[in-house]
Structure formats: structure tokens, C-alpha cells
Amino acid sequence: MTSLVVRRQMSLVLVVDDEASMRLLMREALEQAGFAVEEAADGVQALAAFIRLQPDLVLLDVMMPTMDGFAVCRALRSLPGGEYTPVLMVTGLDNLDSIHLAYQVGATDFITKPIAWPTLGYHVRYMMRASRAFAALQASEEALRQEVQVSSALVRVGREITSSLDAPAILSRLCQLTAEVLECDCSHTFLWQPQEQGYVAVASWGDSADQQETLAAL
Asked: Which has the higher per-residue pLDDT, 72 or 8?
């Protein structure tokens, strides 16, 4: 259990290669660079390991039997969490067609054999840093989108309020818009009544008639 916790505190690289000696060399280079490493010997194992481990980066050999690296990368991009995970393809193919195909199936980058082992860790670290920056940008854009959505809803509320002087209608519409913006099933408005020395339900949206009567009684 302790070793699993330690591994997940480190960036995790999934190494996929059908040659055990190559996996061993990759593991040694990456662990010396400060990464945790898991291995897969073929494409089927790689996809299962990706689902189970959700690694931070996949180091993927191209030339493998049955399911080559191109097919693995294409399948990985359709898995939950696989759309934006960095995939570094390792190939002995130095022709432009194979490089073009690697990017076409979704590879983030590629390196060629023989691998320059001292620089592998730097390459992987740079790709992870770029991936995190991209994820942060996406999160920022999503937060901005939600802020714009809420602001637009507030503008709608303001327009509804200023277009009517009927207080019950205004409060009822306010409840409806609030439920829509917050994506909840129902919404209620309570107003303080000095003579009652308490809050009284004056409007609601999404409730049944029985629920409204219960609120009024409360």
C-alpha cells in the first residue's frame, strides 16, 4: 500500500513495448529522472493498464505484434481520460509517412531509436509540463464560460424584474430562473414578515401543490 501511495505522488509513465530489454532500459532512465513507471508488453495490456492507472504520460513503441502503436494510440484517445494524455511514440521508422501517421492517430510527439537515454527524462518532463499548462487553460476557459452563463442569467433576471410591477409574478419568475441557473429541481423565496416575526414562503417553482401548502404552513 505504501509503495502505491509513493508512486502516485510521483508522475506516472506507462511504458509500452513488446521487448522486455527495451522496457527495462526505459524504466531505468525514467526512474533515475524521478518518474514512477508501469509496464505493458502489448497493446491489449496497455489499454487495460491505462484504464486502471490513468498515467500522466504514455511512452508507446510503434512496432509491436498484433496491435501496433498506431492502433493503440488511436484506441487510447477514445478511452475515458485518454483524450488529452500525452503520448510519446517511440519508433525506429524514420520516414515521413510514419511520422505523419503518428500525429494523425493522436500522438503528442515522437522519438526515434536508438534513444538518447540521458535526455529522455527531460523530454518526458517537458511534455508533462505542457500538458498541465493545457489542462489549466481548459479549466480557466470552463470557469469563464460558467461565469458568463451566470452573468447572462442575472441579466435575464433583471430584465424580468424591470418589465413587470407584479410582485408575485416577479418572485415566481425569479424562483424559476434561479432553479434553471443552478440546475436544481425547485426554488423558493421567503420574505421576512415583521408582524409574523419570521420568514414566510411567498413564491416557489418546481413544487407540487401539496409541497407548496406544506411550505406555507411552515
From this structure: 72
